[in-house]
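Contributing: when you submit paired examples, paste them exactly as shown. First protein:
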Amino acid sequence: MKLNIYSLVAAATIALTLQSGCKKDFLDKQPFNQVTGDVAFTTAAGAEKLMAGAYGGMYNDYHIWDYMVNGDVTSDNAYAGGDNPANIQIDLFTANSTNGNVGRDWGGLYSNIKNANEVLENVPNIQDQALDANGRRNQILGEASTLRAYFYFHLVRLWGGVPLILKSPTNLEEMQKPRSTVDEVYAQIIKDLEYALPNVRTSAPNKGIITKGIVNALLAKVYAAKPNPDWAKVQQYADATIAGGYSLVGTFDHLFDGAHKNNSESIWEMQYDGWGGPSGRGNWMTGVIVGTGWKRFCTPTNDLIAAFDTEGDIIRKNSSVNFRNVSTEGWSDDYWSKANYPFINKYRNDDLANSYILRLADIKLLKAEALNEASTSGWSAAKTIVDEIRLRVNLGGTPANNQAAMRLAIENERRLELAFEGHRWFDLLRTNRAVVVMNAQKNGSGANLNYNVTAAKLLFPIPQAELDRNPNLK
C-alpha cells in the first residue's frame, strides 16, 4: 500500500512538473540520494542514506525556484515576467485550483514530508549500535523533525489548514485525511522544532545541514507568523540564534558575489555544486531571471525600485537589481522600458549560486519587530538593531520615533534587505498588510494595477487533483 500511495504522488508530481514548462528538466538526472535495497532500514549507513534523501528532496522546483515566485512575485517585489501562465496568474491573483505551480508546490512539499516521515519512522528501529555513537541517531531524528516542520511552515502559510500526515499512510482513510486547523498545524510545527532543538548539533560541515541555529531561527519565525504572534517567544529564539556565533558580513554584496558561500551571516543555505557536479545539485535560477534572448522571469517592480530610491539605498539596490538595455530583443513588457530594464542581481553565478533560506539580518530584524511590538516604548531598543542593519549599507539611522512609525520602518527595512529571498509576501501576510499594500500598487506611470486583492485571495486554492483524490478536502 505504501508503494502504491507514493507511486501516485510521484506520478502526479512528474505530470505537474512537465506542465510547468521548467527550463531545466529534473527528470534528466539520476537522483543523487537514491536509496536502494534493505540497507536503508537496517544499518547506520542506511539511516544516513535516508537522511540524505530527506535533504536531497529539497532540490526540487519548490525550494530552487518557486519559493521566490511565492515570496516575491505574489508580493510587491516582482512581476511574473516571462511567459508562464501559472506564474502570471499568481502575480495577478487569478490562480485557481488547476494552476500548475499550485499543484506542483503542494505535491513537492508533501513529497518532502514523506521523505522526512520515512526517516522518523525507520531510524528509531534500526539496531545498528554504530548509529548511537556520538548521539548520531538523535541528531538524525532532530534533523528530520526540523525539515518536516519547515515544510509544514510553508504549507500552512500558503494554504492555511492542511492535512497533517505524520506517518506513511497504510490505508485509504489515512490517505484521505481532512484539513487540520491552522492552529493544529502550527502546534505540530512547534512540537517538531522543540523536539529537534536539544538533539541537533551545534555546528556542521556546511550551512545546508540542520543545526541549533537553524532550529532557533525557525522557532522565532514560526512564533511571529502564528495567527496570534508570541513576541516574547520570538525574542527568546531570536536571541538564541544571534548568540549562536553568527555575525553580519561586513560588505553587503559579499553575500551574493558567489565567493563567500557559507559565510558568517548564513544560518541555512541551499548548497549547489552545479549540474555537472558530484551531486548534480544545480541552481538554475540565474538562467531564468537574468539574460536576454527570451523574456526572463521575476522582474523587479517599479514600486520596489522606488522604495530603494526613496531610501537612498544605493548599495542594496545595486546588489539586488541590475539594469540593462535590451531594446534589440524581440519581446515586449507591460511595466518597463526595454532601454533600461531591471533584472534580479542576487543570483549571478549560473548554476553554482547558493541561495539563503535563513540569514542573520532576517533574524535581527525579527527581534527588532518583537521588541517594538512588546510595548509602546520598545521602538527605542528596536531602533538600535535597525540602525545596525542600515549602517552596513551606509544609511543613516531610521527617523522612526514611535511604535507605529517603527513598525513601518522595520517592514520597509526587511523588504530592502531581503528582496528576492522569498520573505516579502509572508511578511505582508503575517502583519495583515497584504490587502492594503497590494491594492495600492501602481505601474511606472502611476496608474493603479487593480489587483483587487481580497482576504479570499490571500491563500492558494487546494489543487484540483487533490480534491478529486480526497473527498475529505474542502
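Second protein:
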Amino acid sequence: MPLAHLAHLPRSSWLRKPGHHRWLEDEGDRLLAFARAARMPGGFGSLDGFGRLPADAVPDTTFSARMTHCFALAHLLGLPGYADLADHGLAALAGPLRDAEHGGWFSSAAREGSKGCYVHAFVCLAASSAYVAERPGAQALLEQAAAVYQQHFWADAEGAFRESFARDWQSEEPYRGANSNMHSVEACLALAAALSQPVWLDRALAVAQRVVHERPGEGVNEHFDLHWQPLPDYNRDAPDHPFRPYGLTPGHAFEWARLLLELEAARKSAGLDAPPWLFEDAPALFRYGVTRGWAVDGLPGVVYTVNEAGAPIVRERLHWTLAEACAAAATLLQRCGDAQYEQWYQTFWGFIDQHLIDRVHGSWHHELDPANQPAGRLWPGKADLYHAYQATLIPRLPLGLSLARWAQGH
C-alpha cells in the first residue's frame, strides 16, 4: 500500500496503519452494499432506517447524483457490480431528472420547485466522477452540466455562485448561500480535475475568499442577500431547516477546512498560485468546529447549529458532521502532522463507531438526539451515502488528487 505521502507522520499514526486502511475499506464496502437498494426507476430514492424504499419514494436529484458519484468511485476502485449502478444514475440525470425544455435539472422526479445551485453542484460532481470512470454518456452529461453551471450560476463579478432560479431561469431568488457555494468549491475541484481546466480552480478560490476568508475563526456566515450582506436572522422561525438552518453550523467549518487544503494542493499541482491563507485559515476553521460544535452541551458529538455566542440552538447530531470532522482531521494531519489532529481523528472515529454505525440494519444512523440515541426528527431514514462513504476514502487520499483521479490510479 503506497503511503509515501504520509512519511512525515509518526509510525503510530492511524493514517499509516495498514489495519486502519483495511477497516476503512471494509466500512466503505458495507456502506456501498446498503445503498444498492436505493435504485428505482428514474434514479435513486431515499431509503428508510431498515434500508427499504418507501412505497411513495420519488427519485431525488441530489441523492441520485451523490449515489452516481459514489458508485463511479467504487467502480474505479475495482469493485464489481457498481458500474451498472453508476450507469443507472447517469441515465436518470441525462433523462427524467433533466429539464429538456429549459435546461438544467429538477430537484426531483416530481419536477417541482426551483433550480438550485446545490443540486447542480452535485450533478457536476457525479458527471465528473463518471467521466473519469469512462462510463457511457458521462462526457455528454459533464459538458452539459458544466455549461449550465457556468452560464446560470457563476457570477464573475461576485466571485461566487448564485443560489436558485425559476424553472425557465427568468427570475432569481434574492439570496446567496454559503452551503451551496461550499459544495460548489467541491464541484469546481472535481470539474478542474476531470476536464483539466484550471479556470475552475480560480472560481473555487474566489468563492473561498468571498465566503470564509474574512472570519475563519468566528464561524461561517451561512446566509446572505444579493449583495453578500449577512442575514443573521434568516430562518429564525425554522432553526432546524435541513439545508438552511438559522445560526451557524459547526459541521460546515470542518468541511470548509478540508476544502481549503484540497484547493491549496490542487492549485499547487496545477502550477497555480496558492495564497498562504488557504493553509492558515484551515486550522482556524477546524478549531471553531471543535470549540463550538463538539460536546458543547455536555455530551460527545457535534451539535447541528449554534448562535453567534456559541450556545447550541439545534442539539441533534447529524451523521454528516462527524464524517466531515473525520475528513478534516485527516486532511490537516496529512498537511501539517500536528498531533492534535491525530487525537481528534481517532476521537471522531471512536464516536462514529460507538454511536453512528448501525451494525443491525446497516449503514449509519443519520441523526442522533441530544442524548446520542438514534432519531429522525430532522433527517429520517438513511438516504445519504455520500458523506459517510467519502469519510472512508479521504483519509487514504493524497492531497492534490481528486477522489476520482485517486481511485482511477489506486
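If you have annotations for the second protein, write them as plain sentences, like these:
The first strand starts at residue 39 and ends at 40.
DSSP finds 13 helices and eleven strands in the chain.
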